[in-house]
Amino acid sequence: MIRSQRWKGAAFTVPFQLGFVFLYLLPIGYAVYQSMFLQKQSGLGLGSATKEFVGLENYGQGLTDAAFMTSILRVVLFACVQIPFMLLVSLVLALALDAVTSKVAGRFRILLLVPYMIPGVVAAIVWVNLYSPEVGPLTPLGELFGFDWNFFAPSMVWPAIGNLLTWHGIGYNMVIIYSALQGVPRELFEAARLDGASELRIALSIKVPFVRGALVLTALLSIIQMLQIFNEPALFRNVTPQTVSDSFTPIMIIYNQAFNAGNYHYAAALSVLLALILGVASFLFYRLTSREAD
Amino acid sequence: MALTENRKEDGAENGRESGGANGTATATVPPRGRTVRRLTRPDPAARSRGGQRFLLVGLVLAGAYSLFPVWWLIVASTKDRVGLYQSNGLWFSGMHLWDNLHQVFTYEDGIFLRWTANSFLYAGVGSLGGTLIALATGYGLARFDFPGRGVVFAAVVGSFLIPIALLTLPLYLLFSAIGLVDTPWAMLIPCLINPFSVYLAKVYTEATIPFELLEAARIDGAGELRIFFSIVLRMMTTGGATVFLLAFVNTWNAFFLPLTVLRGEENWTLNLGLYNWSGKRLESGIDVTSLVLTGALLSIIPMAIMMVAMRRYWRTGVTLGALK
């Protein structure tokens, strides 16, 4: 390629590069910089606050902050239950779609994608009201079957949020897995059938291994999302603040430190920590799943 | 059987883009006719009727689970307060949809319309600008070999992992330093740079723009800008529409960014407004449940129309983005 042409090609990417510097690199650098300072009141709090360099002190505090660590543990534990469950349901539905006639599959694919069309915040609003003992239909339904469930009780909040996330996510994940299934060479099934394999056996031994890549990817995307969960607990907090505290998830803590406690430097340190944890978690998950494949 | 109808519509509509994702299946579209279909893939129903029925029951249950909240929302928005609290949630009781709509559109001087317009503005204009930048960048990355190309692409992929809080909080401080907080710019500017759009645009360019075509255009004396605007962009209409649609949905659904950078009600998005209404009872004791529910139903409509109208684009977008 001619030299001048290369530079013209590079020019196409310049607007993005500039934007990336201002909207990604600069804010991250600023957050790292801010995270090493602390707002200190001089004297008895009468004088103006001064910014003092404290090095990594905020990080040390973050790592020993029981509320922050608890929130991370809470979200990780939740992810370990909800994500496998959601993906299993999505996988089963994708396999079911793949096994029925195309007419049926086409109709159900659209039907099952309806939740995905609804914005996350609106989905949370709808479910919070479905759970509500006053207006929701689930409480009378439970009574009908002899359950006395209260979805806003401390023990029920995670299952309630988990159900909401599963409802919202199965359609999207199912479509990804289903499209991967379409790539399985059909001749394989014929060969397996001739060898006397049952449909279930074909699904488990041919189809599932074939969509492994799609499963790893959907799991990774779900993990990244889950560690940053904010909207759903925030909406639940609207109706049940005594159960969903303002330190329920890591992002909620960061938001509160920054905007309610005015502790911006600490919030910056926590968000850098969260980014590192996210990076490590994604890397570990990726390594773990790609090693198994070899 | 699954091969036939799906393939016909998928293959015809977006075979070019989704060829990689759908692989062999797209390549072997069977000709019309039942006998041929039977040969390529025997009717599963013929093999096991019981199994088919079992699957169908499972799918119907899953479909009911997916739809009943939406059904409940539709029913709830037709009820007045008494009906909402006292009648069976899954069936109608009186018809008060118009009263509820009237209430939503006139509440606080029609602030709901303002939020709707804001959501359209941020998602529409922001995504349009973002898509153009992404297409140019994707084209540059896919079809030119310049120093630093690898670094730019690594930055694009690496940024998928950056938590939104890490970006949004310092962005808030930077924006407030230059006086952009609480203006539409605080929403529009971040939408212009979307690494995922760039990634998609690069994948689409690789799939649709052949090197030979660019060479031919250059030999004919076309300048690089002219090639981009009159050849590349035209060939990328499908890819561009997909990138735009996904960016639009993303911005429409955004919550953390508007919550952080928008303060005054008049600049809020629909999501932010509904969140605020939903928390009203807690703050002031006023019950606005039917307002929230009717508003929620209304806010779904534009998204649903958009997704249905452009379904072939986002289907490829979802699968391509996921599988490449």
From TrEMBL, chain A:
Subcellular location: Cell membrane
Membrane topology: Multi-pass membrane protein
Residues annotated as domain ABC transmembrane type-1: 72-285
Gene3D superfamilies cross-referenced by the UniProt entry: MetI-like
Parts of the chain that traverse the membrane: 12-33, 72-96, 108-131, 151-170, 210-230, 264-286
InterPro entries in the cross-refs: MetI-like (IPR000515), MetI-like_sf (IPR035906), UgpAE/MalFG_permease (IPR050809)
Main location: membrane
Pfam families to which the protein is assigned, alphabetical: BPD_transp_1
Keywords: Cell membrane, Membrane, Transmembrane, Transmembrane helix, Transport
The family this protein is said to belong to: Belongs to the binding-protein-dependent transport system permease family.
Name this polypeptide is given: Carbohydrate ABC transporter permease
